[in-house]
Amino acid sequence: MNFHIITLFPESFSSYLGESILKRAIEDKKIAVKFYNPRDFAVQPKNRPQTYSERRVDDKPYGGGPGMVIEALPVVKAIESAIKTSKLKTKNYKLSTKILWFTPDGKQFDTATAKKFSDTVKNIILVCGRYEGIDARVKKVFKMEEVSVGPFVLTGGELPAMLVIDCIARQVEGVLGDFASREEARVSSPDTYTRPETIVYKNKKYKVPKVLLSGDHKKIDEWRMEMRNKKTR
Q1: Element (H or E) spanning 120, and its range?
Q2: CA–CA separation, 146 vs 4, rounded Å?
Q3: Taking the CB of the first residue and of the last residue of the chain, which one, N or C, has fewer CB atoms within 10 A?
Q4: pTM for this one?
């Protein structure tokens, strides 16, 4: 599984991708993550480095209003570069490549979608907006899916991209130490417990539910299912 991330701030991913399960998944080549900064696709001056102002890729919105909008062409070129990389990694790249555009009013991303992508897609291009967003003409250039990670507005698309990478990556066999440990693939409860059996805090005892100590796995599964259904309701 190859993740291609279009972002102005690739450094914001380093702490999350550089720790724990995802770090091991990258090192073990179960997943790959590559970044494409639209600033690198701004107009390049000849025979000298870009100045800071020349690396800017945002401008005032047409129609007025606060904030700035990311220009279309640098993002288009960044996506083109990601598609080119996808072609090198995958023979039938059109069938195995998805472009996701993060927006609060997009289709709700969920575990079922993550499972579908992990089974059918090899390259996922994640387009992360910032400020007031990205010039909407980019969506007319490429066929892409508009997705949301929840009914709220964030500062940028980087956090949603991390959520999507995490959710999809854990569906890739070999990423988790035990593939059967995926909660969505087994009977699990939102409440879990570990040793010791009793803890004391401010003179009050807190115990593990008795059913979990019974050794009766049928009853334990029934309890877990009941707890999950109760939380869902």
Answers
A1: helix 111-120
A2: 16
A3: C
A4: 0.84
Contact 197, 213 (CB under 8 A): yes
Which helix (H) or strand (E) segment holds residue 123: the answer is strand 123-127
CA angle, residues 95, 168, 115, in degrees to nearest 5: 70
More confidently predicted of 94 and 34:
34
- Residue 18 corresponds to which tokens in the numbers above? 């550089």
Q: Does residue 68 contact residue 113 with C-beta atoms inside 8 Å?
A: no
177 has a pLDDT exceeding 70: no
Confidence band (pLDDT; 50, 70, 90) for 209?
A: very high
Give the 3-state secondary structure of residue 195: coil
pLDDT tens, residue by residue, 80-104: 999 999 887 666 666 689 999 999 8
Domains present along the chain, CATH in parentheses = 2-179 (3.40.1280.10), 187-232 (1.10.1270)
